[in-house]
């Protein structure tokens, strides 16, 4: 039975470490290869041993597809390709290929050099991994091999994020990765055509949330920043270098411009310059407004936002600083936080998720006395705000995408079980399709009914045409032939051709029938009467009287016999081939009516 | 979690009841999905160090939690799973197990009255928690009785076929563990009871395995085979002999079925038995079954088994021959189908072709590519092993690899209809091309007839030349070419390149030039890496030098210093650095005077100060360090100026690795001034080898002039720990070198030293501040002595990321999160 099998190794009823295995029409594809930010041991990567059980990785997997550059979607990739041993192709979009190494390098730095971990991937491994990448364009159909093809669609979320359609023959799966159905200040909304896949695998981070208007959130953010700098306070916004940081920069830049504000805004140096470089390079991936205004003014050439120098943190007066990393667990953001935490006039705005154990997590959960190194206690007097700017589709957006793609069934990943349950019911009710939400390690099996392409021989077609019936697209017609499978292809051919191609001998099958006639004459005379009768009726057919006394009409053979028990009755034995079935039946019914009275 | 900080201290004990209360309250969601995992990690550490019974008695909230959770109506699956696992951790100690039995807690968790019979059982996390809990618990005979009393083994049997891979796999592992536990101590000495005398529990498990092996349901057979593989892999006791004796006929019977069920797990089992020192020596050892498997599964399926057999140290020769035949069959077919000249030895001449192999090669592109890739990879793995078959058919294998590459690039002229179809199937097949190139590269370790080597170089050149070669194929083609070039030249230090390389190189350089201009950055990068390796090996060879300098390769490489892709710029820097070290970085105008070539130093300095990406700057620093170490002419001309300039540029760099490289360069300079630093070992107490006073003064003067002190002092307070650590090591070395002469440098209290100390304080506070200006060595040394470098090194060793890992922090975080901002939870990025 043909089927599609889906097994999440990560992102099944959880968020983080996305890694989903899909088997479709005998092809195996890995969707994303992410890491879990919350762990620093083996648990940070998906457990690939479940795949290696099936033999060599490169033999088992046909390709790996990465949806976007966030580490929870690509962080395990160099480990997988350079240390576990996958040597096959990896597909991602051009911006993802360009930006991935930056984030992977950053991750490596934290893992190896800050925590002193051994047995971690090196810079060379990251490069070697990136050299295995085949970069794809949006809407470009890429042949992975003769049977498997993939196609990328715009997903919003972050620069270069894509949804992927995976297709083998007539079966297809769409994987959304992370996506956003509402355009923001620098990216457009996700879009997919009505591709009607057998299965849509969608993220469900905000499965139950209908997010408040983006404008409200932005207004709230700007108000908080403005109020703080107005009263002379400093605002710290810890960010990851790529993604939301650019959105917030554009937001503040525009606001500063409009309000003619002079308070300095800084961006902690390092990754961001590179980030902005990539945003400029891949301008076609941003939204229409940015693309349109690009000629007059590049939105990423900020007028008010300047590079940050460590010395600036001590400057008196208000300022806004974007600093990395986003969870306040190291580097500049933490350094600035320590300087400013003690002043109640200041504010820190956390725009995203923080894992347990980080300073970011602690202050978000309301802790105000933090134990820093050497038992030194840091009292947090500054205001702490959480404002989510992560670009995921909310429940409404997810429903919208399901409506857009019109899948036969839906599978939810990248979300929490309870919330997924709610969305699953909603999807099943509204779209009347099956919806699944497997946990990690759980396999969902979807039976499919694939259409199998078949050819038809020219001879057979010509024969049909000779009957004067031209093929019509809207009127299906019955066509007789023999279906043969040769070289893994199906073809409908005439039976003669089938015999010839397959080198088979023909077996004749004859239908026979007995017709009883009341006739007292000898068998030969009865046969002669049959011959004369048929000869007079069947003028277009070849009717013959053979020397042995039998009569033939085309392939039909008629023989007369006299049963010993009743000399007044003669039995006509009529036999014919499959090809003359029609004529044979006609003749039988004719003979059953009896022979015309012969002149006595 | 390890170390003294992770025990159950007073603070943890104080926080624990509140945390337990939160966990037992279904209205309070646990904020972070990693918290429960970390909590379990901590309890594991605690129970390894102290008595679980005592822990439970001193913290009654834990028992309350464990008895309360299974009875809750709306309990979260995560907390329930956590409780099952936690109970298992505690019950691993027998006295604690007895205590938990007394309070009747375990049946409510693991028995029929527990989650097993409830709706929550449908959630994989709960089933997984149940299995893991039992896995921890099953450590003592009492646990076995408990399992028997509650019918747990039957549940585990059914969980082997669970919809969750994780649960199914854990169930199999648990069965092995229980079997081993119940057999523990039964087979001491030389006699082992026969299967009928085994404990009930073990008999039950073995009976289940037997039943599964006879089943017509392939997943059940797979489960049984996996359990056996794990058992024989883990346990080496005598009872495993009895088990194998009993079950091997059933395993062999699987091979009589058509098709053979679960071929992969079956091969794994046979290899595992073959590797086991206990089982491989038995009368009914695995050899006969392995031979049977090889012939039943054939070359299309048994490749992995054949390779495994050939890797074994001890194995009957007949089986090895059979295994090698299985491995070679697909390539033998290819050779036969494409044989050009009669008389050339093929592979497996005289044996008949396996029709299944021909069928796999011809039936479809994916089956053909799959079979060839597997075969080539297996042979590649086998080739370098000492136990590989001898004689090794190097010549036919070489011909097979070359033929496959010809088939892939469409240049093969097949002589048979099979060959013709192979040609059509493999044309443009990148997957097979990559595998064949890898294999061809490995074959460079052996010798081959002159004519064949020429063919190898020809096909490699063809691969490198083809305009439609994919970047991954080109990378492998470069790697294989390098291996063949180096092996064909013999020893690297010999006088010439060797005749083949000398013939090949003039053809190679134009191709290399073309590849350096390829529109794909991956190709340009692979070409540069190839050039670097080649120059490293042959930079001193006159013929190579001549050919290289006559080509445009050095010039093109230099142009790639401006490449738009940072990875390529970095590789170009490395390549140019290598060429420059050997006087090969410019077009040859006067071969007698390589120094006439234009210096690269200004260009590299420009990259170091202006390139927006870290990779090229890191590459420049690596080259500079090598140049300083090797006394490169550009550096030796004015070393002090060179070091001063580089350190000044590096100190401003945003990339921590560039700054760390700067310290590496400083250390090399220091070594040259003061003598080499020895390998640092914190446990050796040795007096530093002092430098005589007067050269020391001179050296210190130089260090001041290049502003090495200021660079290292600033780096000491770098926000990136590796930089600070490296600086700390450097300053410790410097201080040790100068300590014996400290009396000569007493300058404490001078205005200069005061200003240095003030600057140090500013830097420590995270300020940038002004540069120190020209100061005397005395002030620097005084400042050096004033810093507690040992203390600093200790602090730095603890790590600079503030992910607080202590249990106190975890418990506090879990409590603090209650009721706060539920919206934050799922908001990953």
From TrEMBL, chain A:
PANTHER family: CLEAVAGE AND POLYADENYLATION SPECIFICITY FACTOR FAMILY MEMBER (PTHR11203), INTEGRATOR COMPLEX SUBUNIT 11 (PTHR11203:SF37). It comes from Propithecus coquereli (Coquerel's sifaka). Its cofactor is Zn(2+). One of its GO terms (cellular component) is integrator complex. Component of the Integrator complex, composed of core subunits INTS1, INTS2, INTS3, INTS4, INTS5, INTS6, INTS7, INTS8, INTS9/RC74, INTS10, INTS11/CPSF3L, INTS12, INTS13, INTS14 and INTS15. The core complex associates with protein phosphatase 2A subunits PPP2CA and PPP2R1A, to form the Integrator-PP2A (INTAC) complex. INTS11 is part of the RNA endonuclease subcomplex, composed of INTS4, INTS9, INTS11 and inositol hexakisphosphate (InsP6). Interacts with WDR73; interaction is required for the assembly of the RNA endonuclease subcomplex in the cytoplasm. SMART domains: Beta-Casp, Lactamase_B. One of its GO terms (biological process) is transcription elongation by RNA polymerase II. Residues 16-233 form the Metallo-beta-lactamase domain. Belongs to the metallo-beta-lactamase superfamily. RNA-metabolizing metallo-beta-lactamase-like family. INTS11 subfamily. Residues 245-363 form the Beta-Casp domain. This is Integrator complex subunit 11. The keyword Metal-binding applies. It comes from the Eukaryota. InterPro entries: Beta_Casp, INTS11-like_MBL-fold, IntS11_C, MBL, Metallo-B-lactamas, RibonucZ/Hydroxyglut_hydro, RMMBL. Keywords: Cytoplasm, Hydrolase, Metal-binding, Nucleus, Zinc. It is found in: Cytoplasm; Nucleus. One of its GO terms (molecular function) is RNA endonuclease activity.
């Amino acid at each position: 039975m043909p089927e599609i099998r889906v097994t999440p190794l990560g992102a099944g009823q959880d968020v983080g470490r996305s890694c989903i295995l899909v088997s479709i029409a005998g092809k195996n594809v890995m969707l994303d290869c992410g890491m879990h930010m919350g762990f620093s041991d083996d648990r940070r990567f998906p457990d690939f041993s479940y795949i290696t059980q099936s033999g060599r990785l490169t033999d088992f997997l046909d390709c790996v597809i990465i949806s976007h550059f966030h580490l929870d979607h690509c962080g395990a990739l160099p480990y997988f390709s350079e240390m576990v041993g996958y040597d096959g192709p990896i597909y991602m979009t051009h911006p993802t290929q360009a930006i991935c190494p930056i984030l992977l390098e950053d991750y490596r730095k934290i893992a190896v050099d800050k925590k002193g971990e051994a047995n971690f991937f090196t810079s060379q491994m990251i490069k070697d991994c990136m050299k295995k990448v085949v970069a794809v364009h949006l809407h470009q159909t890429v042949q992975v091999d003769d049977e498997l093809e993939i196609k990328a669609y715009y997903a919003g979320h972050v620069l270069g994020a894509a949804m992927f359609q995976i297709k083998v023959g007539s079966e297809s799966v769409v994987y959304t990765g992370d996506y956003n159905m509402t355009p923001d200040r620098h990216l457009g909304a996700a879009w997919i055509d009505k591709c009607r896949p057998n299965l849509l695998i969608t993220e469900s981070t905000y499965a139950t949330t209908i997010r408040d208007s983006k404008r409200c959130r932005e207004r709230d953010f700007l108000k908080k920043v403005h109020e703080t700098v107005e009263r002379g306070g400093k605002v710290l916004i810890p960010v990851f270098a790529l993604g939301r940081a650019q959105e917030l920069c554009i937001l503040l830049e525009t606001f500063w411009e409009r309000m003619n504000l002079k308070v300095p805004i800084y961006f902690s140096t390092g990754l961001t310059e590179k980030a902005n470089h990539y945003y400029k390079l891949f301008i076609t991936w941003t939204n229409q407004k940015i693309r349109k205004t690009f000629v007059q003014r590049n939105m990423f050439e900020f007028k008010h936002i300047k590079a940050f120098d460590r010395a600036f943190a001590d400057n008196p007066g208000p300022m806004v600083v974007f600093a990395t990393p986003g969870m306040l667990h190291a580097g500049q953001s933490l350094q600035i936080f320590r300087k400013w935490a003690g002043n109640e006039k200041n504010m820190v705005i956390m725009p995203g998720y923080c894992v347990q154990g980080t300073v970011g997590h602690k202050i978000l959960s309301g802790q105000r006395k933090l134990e820093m190194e050497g038992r030194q206690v840091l009292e947090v007097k500054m205001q702490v705000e959480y404002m989510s700017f992560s670009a995921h589709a909310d429940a409404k957006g997810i429903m919208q995408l399901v409506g857009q793609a019109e899948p036969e069934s839906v599978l939810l990943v990248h979300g929490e079980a309870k919330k997924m349950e709610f969305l699953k019911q909603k999807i099943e009710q509204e779209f009347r399709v099956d919806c699944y939400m497997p946990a990690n390690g759980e396999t969902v099996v979807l039976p499919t009914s694939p259409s199998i392409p078949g050819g038809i021989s020219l001879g057979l077609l010509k024969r049909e045409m000779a009957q004067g019936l031209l093929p019509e697209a809207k009127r299906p017609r019955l066509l007789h032939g023999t279906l043969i499978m040769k070289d893994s292809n199906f073809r409908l051919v005439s039976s003669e051709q089938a015999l010839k191609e397959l080198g088979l001998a023909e077996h004749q099958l004859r239908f026979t029938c007995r017709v009883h006639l009341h006739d007292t004459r000898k068998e030969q005379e009865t046969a002669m009467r049959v011959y004369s009768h048929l000869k007079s009726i069947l003028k277009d057919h070849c009717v013959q009287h053979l020397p042995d006394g039998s009569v033939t009409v085309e392939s039909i053979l008629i023989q007369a016999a006299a049963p010993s028990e009743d000399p007044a009755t003669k039995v006509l034995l009529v036999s014919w081939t499959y090809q003359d079935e029609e004529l044979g039946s006609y003749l039988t019914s004719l003979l059953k009516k009896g022979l015309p009275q012969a002149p006595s | 979690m390890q170390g003294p900080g992770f025990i159950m201290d007073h603070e943890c004990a104080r926080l624990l009841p509140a945390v337990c209360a939160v966990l037992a309250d279904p209205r309070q969601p646990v904020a972070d999905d990693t918290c429960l995992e970390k909590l379990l990690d901590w309890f594991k550490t605690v129970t390894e160090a102290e008595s679980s019974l005592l822990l439970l008695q001193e913290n009654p909230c834990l028992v309350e939690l464990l008895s309360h959770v299974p009875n809750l109506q709306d309990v979260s699956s995560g907390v329930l799973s956590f409780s099952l696992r936690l109970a298992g951790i505690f019950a691993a100690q027998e006295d604690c197990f007895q205590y938990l039995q007394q309070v009747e807690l375990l049946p409510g968790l693991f028995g029929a009255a527990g989650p097993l019979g409830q709706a929550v059982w449908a959630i994989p996390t709960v089933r997984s928690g149940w299995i893991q809990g039992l896995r921890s618990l099953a450590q003592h005979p009492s646990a076995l009785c408990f399992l028997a009393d509650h019918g747990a083994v039957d549940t585990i049997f059914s969980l082997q076929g669970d919809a969750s891979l994780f649960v199914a796999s854990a169930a199999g592992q648990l069965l092995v563990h229980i079997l081993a536990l119940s057999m523990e101590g039964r087979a001491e000495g030389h006699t082992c009871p026969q299967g009928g005398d085994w404990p009930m529990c073990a008999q039950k498990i073995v009976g289940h395995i037997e039943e599964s092996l006879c089943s017509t349901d392939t997943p059940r057979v797979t489960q049984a085979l996996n359990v056996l593989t794990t058992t024989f892999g883990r346990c080496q006791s005598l009872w495993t002999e009895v088990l194998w004796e009993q079950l091997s006929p059933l395993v062999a019977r699987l091979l009589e079925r058509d098709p053979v069920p679960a071929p992969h797990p079956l091969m794994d089992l046979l290899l595992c038995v073959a590797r086991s020192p206990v089982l491989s020596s038995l009368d009914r050892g695995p050899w006969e079954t392995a031979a049977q498997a090889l012939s039943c599964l054939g070359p299309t399926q048994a490749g992995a088994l054949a390779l495994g057999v050939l890797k074994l140290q001890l194995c009957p020769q007949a089986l090895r021959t059979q295994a090698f035949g299985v491995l070679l069959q697909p390539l033998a077919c290819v050779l036969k189908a494409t044989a050009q000249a009669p008389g050339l030895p093929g592979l497996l001449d005289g044996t008949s072709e396996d029709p299944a192999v021909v069928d796999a090669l011809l039936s479809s592109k994916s089956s053909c590519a799959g079979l060839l890739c597997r075969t080539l990879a297996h042979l590649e793995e086998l080739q370098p092993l000492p136990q590989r078959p001898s004689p090794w058919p190097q010549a036919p294998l070489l011909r097979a690899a070359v033929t496959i590459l010809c088939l892939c690039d469409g240049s093969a002229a097949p002589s048979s209809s099979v060959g013709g179809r192979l040609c059509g199937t493999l044309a443009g097949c990148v997957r097979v091309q990559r595998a064949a190139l890898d294999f061809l590269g490995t074959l460079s370790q052996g010798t081959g007839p002159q004519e064949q080597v020429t063919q190898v170089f020809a096909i490699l050149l063809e691969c490198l030349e083809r305009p439609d070669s994919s970047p991954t194929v080109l990378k492998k083609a470069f790697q294989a070419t390098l291996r063949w070039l180096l092996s064909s030249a013999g020893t690297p230090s010999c006088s010439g390149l060797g005749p083949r390389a000398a013939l090949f190189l003039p053809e190679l350089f134009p191709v290399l030039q073309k590849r350096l201009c390829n529109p794909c950055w991956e190709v340009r990068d692979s070409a540069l890496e190839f050039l670097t390796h080649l120059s490293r090996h042959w930079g001193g060879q006159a013929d190579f030098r001549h050919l290289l300098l006559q080509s445009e390769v050095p010039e093109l490489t230099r142009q790639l210093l401006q490449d738009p892709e940072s990875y390529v710029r970095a590789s170009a820097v490395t390549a140019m650095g290598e060429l420059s070290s050997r006087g090969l970085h410019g077009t040859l105008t006067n071969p007698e005077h390589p120094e006439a070539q234009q210096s690269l130093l200004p260009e590299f300095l420009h990259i170091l100060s202006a390139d927006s990406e870290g990779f090229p700057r890191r590459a420049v620093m690596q080259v500079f360090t090598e140049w300083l170490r090797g006394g490169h002419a550009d550096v030796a001309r004015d070393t002090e100026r060179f070091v001063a300039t580089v350190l000044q540029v590096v100190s401003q760099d945003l990339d921590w690795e560039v700054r760390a490289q700067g310290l590496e360069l400083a250390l090399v300079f220091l070594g040259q001034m003061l003598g080499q630093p020895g390998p640092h070992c914190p446990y050796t107490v040795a007096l530093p080898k002092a430098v005589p006073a007067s050269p020391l003064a001179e050296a210190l003067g130089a260090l001041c002039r290049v502003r090495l002190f200021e660079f290292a002092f600033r780096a000491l307070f770098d926000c990136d720990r590796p930089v600070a650590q490296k600086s700390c090591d450097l300053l410790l070395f410097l201080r040790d070198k100068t300590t014996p002469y400290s009396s000569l440098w007493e300058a404490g209290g001078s205005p200069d030293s005061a200003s240095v100390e003030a600057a140090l304080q500013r830097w420590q506070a995270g300020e940038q501040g002004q540069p120190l200006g020209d100061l005397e060595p005395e002030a620097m040394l005084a400042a050096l002595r004033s810093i507690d470098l040992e203390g600093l090194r200790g602090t730095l060793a603890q790590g600079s990321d503030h992910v607080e890992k202590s249990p106190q922090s975890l418990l506090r975080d879990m409590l603090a999160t209650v009721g706060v901002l539920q919206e934050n939870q799922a908001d990953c990025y």
